[in-house]
Write a structure and sequence with these properties.
The protein is an alpha/beta fold and about 400 residues long. It is built from twelve helices and 15 strands. Helix 4 crosses helix 5. The longest helix has 16 residues, at about 175-190.
Length: about 400
């Protein structure tokens, strides 16, 4: 679905990384700069990670779009009733074996040390057209700050093709299967204490929007990666994907008036206007207009390749035995068409469908919030519900 970091004059820290499983095994350097969240409440290590992955992508039988007319027509054919676009452009398996540069940020409490580290880390996967700043939008709207206040750590990252991470081919490479493999590779590094100087006992996978499709994609293929899963901004219905994509008015990113995406290939797309972001993600009057401006200033891109392949990673995680919590904004347009209570509680349907063997699952709907749950006035309420779930299950 469619879904500022401050520098430091402190010395740079170097780590050596050995990748595993889908990671090819090379020892790769990580450059880590000591930073913080926007509020200064957390101690963070911003990093460029070189990650080797092998991904079962699809060969997409489309030429790179020559112009906006071609992009728009492709989206029209994707969204039309009875669309056959996917079957027409599906050229079969395309194995990608490459090294990619991924930007990530590990945050811990200010008093954390290697002898007194947090026991729990939350692995944060953002949605489409966002980057890792979604988790630290503004002082007072920082999911990371709230997690840190509970004595836990976070790892947020810019997904491949987004933000400070590498921007490879937007059709053949930046696809949903690659997102899954990169997320798995990063979790592997975290579990091996190879991202920063800390070792963690428990990894909680937290997703928003498309991130709540990617993380279940991880648990389907790698059921031991996460001990618990928190899903936000997702449902088992795809009925409102067309409305979401159409309302986003996706435009070739290198033509965006901000100039931030100049030079990218035409397969990178962006929401061009504030209303292109507000319509699918926010519910008025339940958000601060200043937060919409922050979202516009931080807006990010998605690719045609991911649009065409996101559904291919959606499958039940039948081997996952951990804990699952699903939380939706009541007025999430993307997930529920604007009312997640109709025709029944949409949050209640997710875990039984995606996680039929979970040890325990719970769900919640937050009144008045839209798809970008943590950008609404109800942000603190939403976090409190998530935190209560984790604490009640001894996380």
């Amino acid at each position: 679905m469619i879904f500022a970091h401050r520098g430091s004059s402190l010395p740079l820290i170097y780590f050596a990384v050995a990748c595993a499983t889908t990671v090819a095994g090379a020892v790769l350097p990580i450059l880590s700069n000591v930073t913080s969240t926007l509020s200064g409440k957390a101690k963070c290590f911003s990093q460029d990670l070189n990650v080797d992955v092998v991904s079962n992508n699809l060969k997409i039988l489309l030429d790179p779009p020559a112009n906006q007319t071609v992009v728009t027509e492709t989206l029209v054919e994707l969204l039309q009733n009875g669309s056959t676009l996917f079957s027409r452009v599906n050229g079969g398996q395309n194995i990608i074996k490459k090294t990619y540069r991924i930007y990530g940020k590990l945050c811990v409490p200010q008093d954390a040390s290697t002898t007194n580290p947090p026991q729990i880390i939350q692995f944060l996967t953002h949605g489409d057209t966002f980057d890792s700043t979604y988790w630290d939008l503004s002082p007072g709207y920082s999911y990371i700050d709230l997690v840190i206040s509970q004595g836990q750590a976070t790892f947020s990252y810019d997904r491949i093709g987004v933000g400070r991470s590498q921007h490879p081919d937007p059709l053949q490479e930046v696809q949903a299967p690659l997102q899954v493999e990169i997320a798995h590779a990063l979790v592997t590094l975290i579990r091996k204490a190879q991202v920063g100087p800390y070792s963690f006992n428990i990894v909680v996978g937290v997703g928003h929007g498309a991130g709540s499709t990617i993380n279940p994609g991880v648990t389907t293929k790698y059921p031991r990666d996460f001990d618990s899963v928190i899903l936000t901004g997702t449902s088992v219905s795809t009925s409102f994907v067309n409305t979401t994509i159409a309302s986003s008015d996706l435009t070739i990113a290198n033509t965006d008036s901000s100039g931030r995406f100049a030079g990218l290939p035409n397969g990178y797309l962006v929401q061009p206007l504030p209303q292109s972001i507000q319509f699918p993600y926010l519910r008025w009057p339940n958000f601060d207009p200043k937060i919409l401006k922050v979202m516009v200033d931080n807006k990010q891109i998605q690719t045609l390749g991911e649009l065409l392949t996101l559904d291919t990673i959606a499958a039940p995680s039948t081997q996952f035995r951990g804990f699952v919590f699903v939380i939706l904004g009541e007025n999430d347009l993307v997930s529920c068409g604007g009312d997640c209570t109709q025709p029944q509680d949409q949050a209640a349907l997710v875990a039984p469908t995606l996680y039929p063997t979970a040890f325990l699952s719970r769900h919640s709907i937050i009144s008045g919030a839209g798809h970008a749950l943590f950008a609404h006035y109800a942000f603190l309420e939403a976090f409190a519900v998530v935190n209560d779930f984790l604490r009640s299950n001894r996380f």
